[in-house]
Design brief:
alpha/beta, 20 strands, 9-stranded mixed beta barrel, 22 helices, 547 residues, Rossmann fold, single chain
């Protein structure tokens, strides 16, 4: 609904009012969305007492016929893929169900039934002239915003802090056959077992679930995954921004996947597989039959979930996603203009001379701090380190790296490496702050079990102090150039690599050393320089096995 109304904005002949049709289980979420944009809501009784020039609805359910005025029914979701058990006709899609479209007197209370694709018009035609006579193919207004936002993909990824990582989005619809209902442990499994420097995991949950549970309850249920760095999309607009930003999608049978496919043909896998709600031959039914499936946990095994996801994503081949989007959405790029023309014709008004441009999606809200403790797995070689950092879970590795001041006291005292990120610039300059040298000395004195302390500087360098070494080191990971872009490693990862190499070799270098730090498929040049030792230029630093 909120994606459609901008087609009518800027016209002072129109006044927009909102009301909630009684009977919905998800009313609080709807009212919250309207309140967020500052819409004026009137009681249902008042709405029924008025005569309206136009009644716009996104669902045919409820006693809409009590609202006087020509009705417009908008596309809702994508593809009309499923029927809802216990509601209407078992073999009809929820938005095309004659049980909801047909009034007692045999007429549909519609001035316009806007659909997104000619196939939906054909499905209405099978019900009779009464169902298809007022139907018009206009396209999908929500898709217009998704398509218009594709040039902003880099901006969305920057807002999320994705960097060079693969953004893996999980999409869960609502109801007992949704991803979260069938595999509730999948978000935390992936958030804790996928390497943090290679993957960012996000979750898109249907607004009905946000409304049913409430934000607090949903966050509490997902707390372990959120603490491991999971990004939870807000229920309005932000979900679509994440689909534009994503590199890969794990989906259930919800129509969110079709918007993802329309924004670009990228890897997509299914988990679970739709159950009894999907209508045979619908775009989502066809898509789920053609894309790789994620093996259920009883088949993959607890240790195999991450491998199963990687294998399924690798198995995807371009084609099914694009074809599913084409089967769900027509008139791509033209939907708002078509809808605008139809609506003004119903109003009997001449549209304003200038059409409104499609509003791009807003940038996502930057997620929280992310993990504050990592199980660090390290393979140390003479000339470098291969590193995999995972948010603290059940896979202990070479050492535990903990962010000082953000993690609990027990975690802090258990760390092999403590790291301190720069103080937020908003903190008052009058505050008494540690110097990097002072903090590293303090941290090792306060935590006798800790081997190494690293203060991350605003420049991205680290001052790293190892217990028993005569002087600290400056650690720097050089950025990588990749096809005109720059990829940077997390300085905390560089600190872990330096710690692992120094501990493994028992070395106390007196001159600068150049190492390779491998994070997944990327290798970063890492320079380890004892404080007071030159040279500054990393190209002059010898490799540990040279000379």
């Amino acid at each position: 609904m909120l994606d459609v109304l901008p087609a009518l904005s800027g016209d002072d002949r129109l006044t927009r009012l909102f009301t909630l049709v009684p009977g919905s289980d998800f009313g609080p979420g709807v009212l919250s969305a309207i309140d967020r944009v500052g819409g004026r809501v009137i009681p249902w009784s008042e709405a029924c007492a008025r005569t309206h020039d136009l009644v716009v609805a996104a669902s045919p359910k409820g006693e809409l016929s009590l609202l006087r005025g020509p009705h417009v029914l908008l596309p809702h979701g994508a593809g009309y893929n499923k029927s809802i058990p216990g509601e209407g006709s078992a073999d009809s899609a929820s938005g095309l169900d004659p049980a909801h479209l047909l009034r007692a007197d045999g007429d549909a209370p519609l001035g316009l039934h806007a659909v997104a694709h000619p196939d939906q018009l054909a499905r209405l035609s099978t019900l009779g002239r009464w169902a298809s006579g007022r139907a018009r193919v206009v396209g999908d207004p929500t898709l217009e915003r998704v398509l218009a936002s594709r040039p902003l993909r880099d901006r969305y990824r920057a807002a999320l802090g994705t960097g060079p990582r693969t953004l893996l989005v999980l999409a869960s619809t609502w109801g007992p056959e949704s991803l979260l209902s069938q595999r509730p442990g999948l978000p935390v499994e992936l958030a804790t077992r996928l390497p943090h420097d290679e993957y960012q995991v996000a979750l898109v949950v249907h607004p009905n679930e946000h409304s049913r549970l409430g934000g607090y309850e949903l966050n509490e249920r997902l707390a372990p995954a959120l603490e491991a760095g999971l990004v939870l999309a807000a229920p309005h607009e932000e979900w679509a921004s994440l689909l534009v930003a994503a590199d890969a999608l794990v989906t259930d049978h919800g129509s969110t996947a079709l918007y993802y496919c329309a924004a670009g043909d990228r890897p997509i896998v299914s988990a679970p597989h739709g159950g009894t709600e999907l209508i045979p031959g619908s775009p989502m039914h066809t898509l789920l039959r053609r894309i790789p499936r994620l093996e259920p946990p009883e088949t993959a095994g607890a240790a195999g979930t991450v491998a199963a996801v990687a294998e399924a994503l690798d198995a995807y081949r371009p084609g099914p996603g694009r074809e599913a989007a084409e089967a769900a959405f027509a008139c791509q790029g033209d939907a708002l203009d078509r809808l605008r023309t139809e609506v003004y014709a119903l109003l009997g008004l001449e549209p304003p001379p200038l059409a409104n441009p499609v509003r791009p999606l807003p940038s996502p809200t930057r997620p929280g701090r992310g993990p504050v403790a990592f199980d660090v797995h390290a393979e140390v070689a003479p000339d470098g380190v291969r590193l995999a950092r995972r948010a603290l879970g059940d896979t202990p590795g070479h050492h535990l790296a903990v962010e000082y001041g953000a993690a609990s006291e027990p975690l802090t005292r258990s760390a092999g490496l403590l790291f301190l990120r720069p103080v937020n610039s908003s903190v008052s300059r009058a505050e008494l702050a540690w110097t990097p040298e002072g903090w590293t000395e303090h941290a090792l004195a306060a935590c006798p079990g800790c081997r190494t302390a690293a203060a991350i500087l605003p420049s991205g360098h680290c001052l790293l102090r190892v217990r028993g070494h005569p002087r600290p080191y400056v650690v720097r990971a050089e950025p990588r150039r990749e096809g005109g872009r720059t990829a940077r490693a997390d300085p905390a990862a560089a600190a872990s690599a330096a710690h692992a190499w120094l501990v493994a070799h028992g070395a106390t270098p007196t001159a600068p050393v150049r190492l390779e730090c491998h994070l997944g498929e990327r290798a970063y040049r890492l320079v380890l320089r004892p404080v007071g030792a030159g040279p500054e230029d990393p190209s002059e630093c010898p490799s540990p096995h040279s000379g």
